[in-house]
Design goal:
about 90 residues, little secondary structure, two-stranded antiparallel sheet, about 0% helix, globular, Galactose-bd-like_sf
Length: about 90
């Protein structure tokens, strides 16, 4: 995944933590933000069958960066044909 670095901010996967605040001094956004909107994905290996009931994300804001938010998800299961679309507030 290419990493968003707008305004000198870094938003790599290693920084991504729910409910952590951004590090304003180091310009580290506590989220993983892609540099483009096309074909971005998240792969999760749960190691065994588990029921997923929710996906949590957060809006990110940094003084010198733009507002960033994930507003739409599509989930695919490789063993079974499954498509679920989750939409955010702007219904994109």
């Amino acid at each position: 995944m290419s990493v968003y670095q707008g305004g000198g901010c870094v938003a790599s996967a290693s920084n991504a933590r729910l409910y952590f605040e951004d590090d304003q001094d180091r310009k580290q956004i506590r989220a993983c933000c892609a540099s483009s909107r096309d074909l971005q994905w998240i792969k999760v290996d749960l190691e065994r069958v588990k029921q997923i009931t929710a996906v949590a994300t957060q809006v990110v804001y940094h003084k010198s960066c733009n507002m960033i938010a994930v507003v739409r998800y599509k989930s695919f299961l490789s063993l079974v044909t499954l498509l679920t679309v989750y939409q955010g507030l702007d219904n994109e």
